[in-house]
Amino acid sequence: MEKSLKTLSINNGLILGLILSVITVLMYALNLELFTKWWVGIPLFLLALGLGAYSAIKFKQQQGFLSFKQAFSAYFITVAVGSFIATIIGIVIFTFVDPDAAQFLNEEILIMTKEAMEGFGAPQEVIQEALLEAEKKNNFALVEQLKAYVWRLLFYSIFGLIVALIVKKNNPETE
How is the chain split into domains, by residue range? Predict the structure, then answer.
């Protein structure tokens, strides 16, 4: 892989990580409940998608052409680095700085789960069983946050494949 592709992608990943980290810290400081809102993830996803696509487009502008592999690599490295930094910040906050915040959020998630299941008309015994199972899980534990990081990368990769298909431009000399 070209050094400039790695450098560009890592630099953009560091920028993404910084932005996501600042947002995470602000959410923590201003309103913990934002971590439980599904709609908060949409602009964060779009930010990561956009900066990943920007990396691929920028490299294509530098080179004049871009293989599918290069386009996907530029996107993926950016998203992986940025998401990793944000995950580390989340681990630091919820594991070391304020484990009580993680406990509060886990309780909020249980309440939301119960309300959602009741809204769907689930039988009370099914709700109780699901809540008992959910109580055993700490969504903000180190291992759970690392698992979430891996799942995020898989999700982002699907969009990365689409971005790579759109952005790629074959070298006319090799055709």
Answer: 3-169
